[in-house]
């Protein structure tokens, strides 16, 4: 059980050695030889807000409390000024319950969920656009030296992706330093964990950068804006609606960030080109992700 109170802010990084997150499976390779590889686990986690069942999510199962809080925040079911009295996780039941001081009822809202392009059954609600229309993002800056520093740190950090693949990562950075790195089978789960971590520890989004391994879709843009983060970066590509939304709300949107290369399609005014590219290394083949040439 987790109480919502003031505690030191922990730095979150992947733990590829956690035996709960991957499983060894045997198979056969292209030569007919027997092989054993590790693959990510998937678990069903059911989320309740007070007495109401909200959703069942497929997740690797780490940080269920952060995932629950972040999901509710990013779906506009929980406001940033709401008082959360308790987050209770039952490992045996695979249930997490978020309790608030005020009464909640989202029966009508739950009826109008729409499927999004995110993997692992991500959903967005029809009124999320209204929730971001009034958001004013901070006037931050992004130095290209920070961009290259953080992508190098992320690509070389031990992770479940490097251990087992088939997973997405999201990383919250301050300047060029990762401060919260989460992974999950869906990028929407990974970013929700970061949102929950920020809410739990009252982390200021104004000077932060959000990095994702997945595509820059409308869902990722909306969630980033909901979190109040002014800069969103990906190693993958863009969707047209994601770009349109980013331009509407003034979000700095940078994709295809690999080695020396990147493309900014929104919010270029925040970028400070202070890095000499002669001193930036091309990305190692070890850190390239399957299918990234097609912007998966």
Using brief descriptors, characterize the structure shown.
single chain; 8 helices; globular; 6-stranded mixed sheet; 296 residues; disordered N terminus; 31% strand; alpha/beta; 5-stranded mixed sheet
Structural commentary:
- The chain has 296 residues and is of the alpha/beta class.
- It is 25% helix and 31% strand.
- The chain contains eight helices and 17 strands.
- The protein has helices at residues 64-74, 107-110, 128-133, 144-156, 160-164, 187-201, 218-226, 240-249, and strands at 2-3, 22-28, 34-40, 43-49, 52-59, 84-90, 95-100, 113-115, 123-125, 142-143, 168-174, 177-184, 208-212, 231-234, 252-258, 261-266, 271-272.
- α6 packs parallel to α7.
- The radius of gyration is 19 Å and the shape is globular.
- The protein starts with a strand and ends in a 24-residue tail after the last strand.
- 40% of the residues are buried.
Offer a concise description of the structure.
With 296 residues, the protein is an alpha/beta fold.
Sequence-ordered SSE layout with sheet pairings:
Elements: E1 2-3, E2 22-28, E3 34-40, E4 43-49, E5 52-59, H1 64-74, E6 84-90, E7 95-100, H2 107-110, E8 113-115, E9 123-125, H3 128-133, E10 142-143, H4 144-156, H5 160-164, E11 168-174, E12 177-184, H6 187-201, E13 208-212, H7 218-226, E14 231-234, H8 240-249, E15 252-258, E16 261-266, E17 271-272
Helix pairs in contact: 1-6, 6-7, 7-8
* Mean pLDDT score: 87
Range of strand content: 25-35%
Q: How many distinct beta strands?
A: 17
Which segments are poorly predicted (pLDDT under 50) over 5 or more consecutive residues? 1-7, 114-125
Radius of gyration over alpha carbons?
Answer: 19 Å
DSSP helix count?
Answer: 8
**Would you list the SSEs in sequence order as H and E?**
EEEEEHEEHEEHEHHEEHEHEHEEE
Sheet having the most strands = 6 strands, mixed
Helix content: 10-25%
Strand arrangement within the widest β-sheet reads 12-11-13-14-15-16
Distance between the termini: 37 Å
> What characteristic shape results from the CA principal axes?
globular
Q: Please state the structural category.
A: alpha/beta
């Amino acid at each position: 059980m987790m109480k919502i109170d003031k505690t030191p802010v922990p730095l979150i990084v992947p733990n590829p050695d956690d035996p709960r997150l991957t499983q060894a499976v045997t198979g056969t390779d292209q030569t007919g030889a027997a092989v054993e590889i590790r693959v990510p686990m998937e678990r069903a986690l059911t989320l309740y807000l007070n007495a109401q069942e909200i959703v069942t999510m497929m997740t690797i199962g780490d940080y269920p409390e952060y995932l629950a809080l972040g999901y509710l925040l990013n779906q506009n079911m929980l406001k940033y000024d709401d008082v959360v009295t308790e987050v209770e996780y039952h490992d045996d039941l695979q249930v997490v319950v978020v309790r608030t001081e005020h009464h909640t009822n989202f029966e009508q809202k739950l009826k109008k969920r729409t499927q999004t392009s995110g993997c692992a059954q991500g959903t967005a609600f029809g009124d999320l656009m209204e929730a971001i229309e009034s958001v004013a993002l901070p006037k931050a800056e992004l130095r290209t030296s920070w961009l290259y520093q953080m992508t190098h740190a992320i690509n070389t950090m031990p992770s479940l992706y490097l251990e087992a693949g088939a997973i997405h990562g999201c990383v919250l950075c301050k300047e060029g330093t990762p401060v919260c790195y989460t992974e999950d089978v869906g990028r929407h789960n990974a970013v929700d964990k970061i949102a929950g971590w920020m809410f739990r520890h009252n982390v200021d989004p104004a000077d932060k950068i959000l990095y994702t391994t997945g595509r820059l879709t409308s869902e990722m843009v909306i969630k980033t804006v909901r979190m109040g983060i002014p800069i969103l970066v990906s190693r993958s590509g863009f969707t047209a609606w994601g770009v349109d939304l980013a331009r509407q709300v003034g979000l700095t949107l940078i994709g295809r960030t690999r080695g020396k290369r990147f493309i900014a399609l929104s919010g270029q005014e925040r970028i400070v080109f202070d890095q000499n590219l002669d001193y930036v290394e091309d990305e190692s083949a070890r850190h390239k992700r399957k299918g990234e040439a097609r912007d998966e």
